[in-house]
From TrEMBL:
Residue span, Extradiol ring-cleavage dioxygenase class III enzyme subunit B domain: 105-351
Organism (species): Dactylosporangium salmoneum
Highest taxon of source: Bacteria
Pfam families recorded: LigB
Name assigned to this protein: Extradiol ring-cleavage dioxygenase class III enzyme subunit B domain-containing protein
């Protein structure tokens, strides 16, 4: 269901008190009165905020329906549950030509710096996931790897997403007492500048940084995944402490789709971070397994991009401030691409729900080709 159709139906009720009274008096007539199918009309007249949110309707609008149809000013009947609504048809995939790999993984420093603090079996399963993803990345034979991470120890001039435009990137794990894990990477200044230009052309702000000091956010995943040390890498750094917009992250990714295709390069896109993870005093070590499962199910069913419809608070409340990094990747990949979860491990000692996910671009492209063939009239 298109979110805007539902929002328009609810706002039509808001603007027309007589229509609202008619629907309240005769809920079974809501579908005809609102031009919706019976299922979604029922979600409105039942005041089912959780279901409406699953279609991307924003919270400020869904609260209207519980006020009108539940006589529940305190909204005590809503559970705030996150629903993966698999009854909605999956949009056709439209993976950019030139994108040869997409995936996501956590970047927890302890995985390399002191893995002994977590259960050995869980660490083993997580590392197995990284090894599978490393094989996928190598098989994709990329010319350049775009990698998102959030700002941990760096300092930038603005609150915008940052693109590293330097010819090289250096980083250190000295904060974790493991200088032996330091890393030096090759950059790709020309393509990085072209990416920044594409974002600006889309009317968005971006900070270009000639120097991006790598921290564990890039060092850990790239030490585990990069096929060869001289493969060019372009860091994309988010700054959730300064700005947090799920919509903005998706839009940033979408702005990069065309420049990837026009570059003629084989481009890999890796998101890093999360899933649930709090640095707040008193909360470090908590893991929201239920919400992590919701996010992974959204990815598995090809609906990860829809997470961008959530407002900032639900994500932040569930410890997902690093999922912004994933939404940039999902914005590049586009809708309808399923993710395969290679690993998920809730690890209290290292402080989060850690995961490894491979986005199945090949299957999405095959499905798109099938759809295209089906659309060709018989006999042509
Ligand atoms: Fe992080």
């Amino acid at each position: 269901m298109d979110r805007t159709i539902l929002e328009n139906a609810i706002l039509t009720l808001a603007r027309d008190p007589e229509l609202l009274e008619r629907v309240r008096a005769n809920p079974d007539d809501a579908a005809g009165a609102l031009g919706l199918d019976a299922t979604w009309a029922r979600a409105i007249v039942d005041g089912d905020r959780d279901r409406l949110r699953s279609a991307g309707v924003n919270d400020g609008i869904t609260i209207l329906v519980s006020r009108w149809f539940k006589d529940d000013l305190g909204d005590s009947a809503s559970r705030g549950a996150f629903v993966v609504d698999e009854s909605m048809p999956l949009p056709a995939a439209d993976v950019p030509e030139g994108l040869v790999f997409a995936g996501g993984c956590s970047h927890v420093p302890d995985l390399l710096a002191r893995p002994e603090i977590d259960p050995a079996e869980a660490v083993g399963r997580l590392l197995d996931g990284y090894h599978r993803l490393a094989a996928d990345l190598a098989a994709a034979r990329p010319d350049v790897v775009l990698v998102t991470a959030d700002c941990h120890f760096q300092s930038f001039a603005t609150q915008h997403f940052v693109i590293g435009t330097g010819p090289a990137h250096r980083g250190s794990m000295e904060f974790f007492k493991r200088p032996d894990l330091d890393l030096q990477l090759t950059g790709h200044p020309d393509f990085a500048a072209a990416m920044a230009g594409a974002v600006q052309a889309a009317g968005q702000e971006v900070e270009l940084a000639d120097r991006v000091d790598l921290d564990h956010g890039l060092i850990v995943p790239l030490r585990l995944l990069l096929p060869r040390p001289d493969l060019p890498v372009i860091p994309i750094i988010t700054q959730p402490a300064r700005s947090f917009s799920p919509f903005g992250a998706r839009a940033f990714g979408q702005a990069l789709r065309r420049v990837i295709t026009e570059s003629g390069l084989r481009v890999a896109m890796l998101a890093t971070g999360g899933l649930s993870h709090w640095l707040d005093p008193g909360k470090f070590g908590a893991v929201d397994v239920e919400f992590d499962a919701y996010l992974l199910r959204m990815l598995q069913t090809g609906r990860g991009l829809d997470v961008s419809a959530l407002e900032p608070y639900p994500l932040l409340d569930h410890g997902q401030y690093e999922f912004l990094n994933w939404l940039i990747m999902l914005g590049i990949v586009g809708p309808g691409v399923r993710g395969e979860v290679y690993a998920y491990e809730p690890m209290q000692a290292s402080g989060g729900g850690w995961t490894v996910v491979h986005m199945d671009l090949a299957a999405a492209r095959d499905a798109g080709a099938e759809t295209g063939r089906a659309a060709v009239p018989a006999g042509v």
